[in-house]
Every structure is written in structure tokens, then in C-alpha cells.
Fold:
Amino acid sequence: MKKALIAAAVAGAFAAPYAIAADGVSVNIYMAEALTIGDTTTTNGTVVTKQDSDTVSDGGGNRLMFSWTDTLNNGMTLHVYQSFGNLSNSEGQFGQNNVRNRNSHIGLSGDFGSIRMGTNEHFIEGDAIIDGYGADWSTGGEGLNHMTLGQSGFAFVRRDSNSIWFNSNDYNGLTFRAAYIGGPQAAAANASDPEGTQLGVRYASGSFSIGYNVGSYDDYAANGANNGAGVAGSQVNADQLNVAYDFGAFSLKATMIDMEQTNQAGAGTGLAARGHSINFTMPVSTGRVIANVGAISDQDQTVAGVTTALNDSGRSSFDIGYQHDFSANTYGFVRYDSRDDGVNFDATAGSTESENVMLGLVFSY
Structure:
């Protein structure tokens, strides 16, 4: 009898995951690695330094993703999402990339749309992923590479925690989105109250889509760090326009962002710049040809109420490559990319130029 009970318990333990899966569990894995052959040249006055960067590099944080759905008694649907990133071992076996949470959230959807809360990479970032590689190779012309104020290091590429957001249903091609991001708890005797907001509207019809987003972050550290070291009175704003059209033989996508940071050092200083990226994708019989160009303008700098252009403080980038489909889940690619940062793009000494040739494999299931 005891043996029968033990056998039934073991069988139930193995059967349970399948019963759960049938109720709406999805497991996905993303793995991207590339042999990268390249170099970075730094020019500081008359001193030129060249550094080789030949390595195996991962695709921006390989990921293991879980999602659950559950239909509730009131007709709404519960959604749970958990993503783990930094799974690469490209820094040696087990490397320095510890497995860590990437995104996690829970929420409800229904006739009103969907509302969720937790940690998320919001739509100002997501709408700039137009390059066909998921923006996972960061030295080329893809959109995410051109959403940063180099002098302070503030980027609109963020994994926002403590957030709650809303996505509307589709109304004849029109959708609306909103997010509120609560900042970290302020340090003792710190008057800062970090918080952020994003608002967006998008229209899509056939081969054409256009969207406009705005974002604002208050009282964060100058580089946007989510660590409690806020700066009272600081603010960063952005306006983003996204346009796409599929011509059939090829498609074009563009993202443009106008960024401004005020009181970024707590002393009345500020920065402003514009960034853009354009993607060209042409399907061929066995894959795709992809090219991206992007740039950040020279930054305007405000000190003590006086605004001046900061010469040679921009960035320009370019990449072109071919993706070859081996299956529905796997493709290989070859890609060349180039990036130039002006001598005053960031606070480091000198200008930098980088070039890379990559041979890679991407698996997504």
C-alpha cells in the first residue's frame, strides 16, 4: 500500500508541471553569441591609443523568460512575467555575469486594456528597437545607441523598477500607453523624491505606423542611477517620434528623440541633444540584409544660466549586415559596425573610434 502511495505521489509530481503548462505557462529562451574582431582608437590631443577588442560577446544579456496567464472568474486575465538576464559565459566559464532579474511584473487585462506593475523596460526604450537584432549589439547605428546624453551619462535605456503602467486596447489602429515610475527611497536628509512618467500614443494602418512618446524623470542622480543618490530639483525630459513603412521589397523605420536635462548636477547646469536612427531591412530568399545609421547632435551645455554649444560633442554610428535563417528559431549573421564619439561627447579624455566585424549565431525559442 505504501509503495502504491509513493508511486502515485511521484507520478503526480511529474504530471503537475504538464497540468500547469496546459493552463497557460510559456517558457522562452534567447541566446546570442558573436565572434567579434575589432578595435577602439582613442585620440587625446597628440596621443593616439589603439586597443584590440577581439572577443566572444553576447547579445546584450541572454535571457530565460517565463510567462503565465490565468483566466479569472470575472472574465479578466491575470498575466505574470519573469525574465532572467545576463546568462552569458563569454567572460569565462560562469564568468562575471551572474544570473539576475531582468523584468518581472504582474497585472490584469480586460475590456479596459491592461495594467501591470513591477519592473519593465518601458516603451520609450522598446519603440527604439528597430534594427532587426533586438538592439543587442551596441556599437552600431541602432536606435538605443542614440538615446543618451554623453556628458552626464543619462540614457533613456532603462530597466525601471517600482513602476505601474497601462496599455489600452486597439481602437481602429490607435493605442495609448502610460507609465508611472516611483524612484528609490531617498537617503536620510535628502530632499529628493525620484519619480518618472512616460506617455505614448501610436497609430498603425497596414504598412504604416507612427507613434509619439514623452518621458520625464525627476530628482534622479545625474546619470539616472536608481540607487537613492537623487539630486533634488534635477529633471530629464524627452520627446520621441517613431515612424515605419513597409514598401514590400524593403522596409524603413526611424526613431528620433529630443533630450534635455536641467539642474543635472544640482547647481543649475544642464544639457540638451537630439538623437536619431534609421533602419533599412530588405528580405532576400534566405534571410535579410540590414543597415542602420544613427547620430547624436552636439550637446548644448548650460552653466549659470548661459547656454552654449559644446563643440565636437556628438556621436555618429553605422552598421550593415546579413542574417541567414537556418530554421524558424535560429539565424547566423555577419555584420560590420562603426562608431565615432567626439572629443567632448562624454567626460572622459579624448575622442574614440571603434570598428567591429562580427560573426554570430542567435537562437530564440
In short: Residues 29-364 form a domain with the Porin fold (CATH 2.40.160.10). The chain has a mean pLDDT of 86. The CA atoms of residues 148 and 155 lie 4 Å apart. Helices lie at 2-22, 123-126.
